[in-house]
Amino acid sequence: MSILDYLLRKKKKSAAVAKERLQIILAREHIDRSGPDYLPELKKDILKVVEKYVAIDYDKIQVTIENDGNCEILELNISLPDFAADTVPLTKVRSTSAAKRV
Amino acid sequence: MAKVIVVTSGKGGVGKTTTSASVATGLAKRGYKTVVIDFDVGLRNLDLIMGCERRVVYDFVNVIHGEATLKQALIRDKRLANLDILPASQTRDKDALIKEGVEKVLNELRKTHDYIICDSPAGIETGAVMALYFADEAIVVTNPEVSSVRDSDRILGILSAKSKRAMDGEDPIKEYLLITRYDPNRVQTGEMLSIDDIMELLGIPLAGVIPESMSVLQASNSGTPVIHDELSISGLAYQDLVERLLGEEVPIRFISPVKKGLFKRLFGT
Fold it and tell me: Residue B93 pLDDT > 90, yes or no?
């Protein structure tokens, strides 16, 4: 990067950063709020188990419950940390349970 | 039919009490019989903002516990004859607010008043939930700042899940967004969240924008609700808010940047 590029580079305005951060955190909190009461607890328990083997953050685990016709789908997404710099490994465990009929 | 309006925010220090005092005063000025109740038990402050701190004898908790009648506890505003203040207790804690007791007091006030303004404490504990539980309408006070926006979103969740209207399956509480301490100059330079940003994040209709102004502190210093100050842009913005609460269409003012002169640039504001 030339010096000129550096000087002309536009710095992201802090209000835009604030908005972006809020959009992400509010979306996450809405999911936590809309699901059953046990979802955040379930997430913490899963984190405890995964943490035994890999160090990950709380927000790298996403647990959602979707209503798909006459069954509920519990979807679990765990993003593992980058081992190789150029790949983004994503382990996706999708367990479908038709145990609870709606 | 009397209306119960809660002034809430989740976060502290965003202007709930300032707003409660000015909205109640504004409604009374328009001829409505109004009462403003301080729900911040243990940390009462509405009396100071309304300038009646030396006239407090009995309080909200005394009435709930039958130690005083409502008539004894209500303080008549010194400027407006149709405005009453019900102060919070300074010595008890928030658990002194029992749902049945609060309901009884509100029902009694509904018979005699047109508007009941509930000044909520900060937080999401008993006091805050009691203040919003019986509300018909809610003014959500938000500063253009990340923690305030997040807490407002949280309070909106509580309004739609834990209020009486939500639990009884009635029409939901009518929610209004009030942005306070807004600085158009800082929004223009990209340092502050804009009105549109906040509306997009919270998704509720805008009822008013109160610009950052020196007059709010001056008003609280003297115990005069800022809406009385007709030379102040904050006072005028609160008047506009009251008109919008009454269903009138009033454009939002004082939201364009003001150019600072050379003198101000050199010597500060």
Answer: no
Distance from CA of A53 to the nearest CA of B (A): 33
Q: What is the pLDDT of residue A83?
A: 60
Mean pLDDT of A33-61: 81
- Quote the CA–CA distance of A46 and A93 in Å, as a whole number: 12
Q: Chains A and B: how many Cβ contacts under 8 Å? A: 35
Residue B67: which pLDDT band, with cuts at 50, 70 and 90? very high
Residue A95 banded pLDDT, cuts 50, 70, 90: very low
Look at the block and give the residue holding tokens 């223009």: B188
pLDDT value of position A33 = 79
Q: Which of A13, A16, A23 sits opposite B201 (nearest CB)?
A: A23
Q: Is B181 left (phi over 0), alpha (psi -120 to 50) or beta?
A: left
Listed in order, strand segments (DSSP E) in A3-68 are: 61-68
Q: Is the CB of residue B52 less than 8 Å from the CB of residue B85? A: yes
| Closest Cα in chain B, distance from residue A98 (Å) | 28
How far apart, in whole angstroms, are the C-alpha atoms of residue B223 and residue B51? 4
What are the E-state strand segments in B87-189? 115-119, 137-142, 174-182
What is the ipTM for the molecules in this complex? 0.88
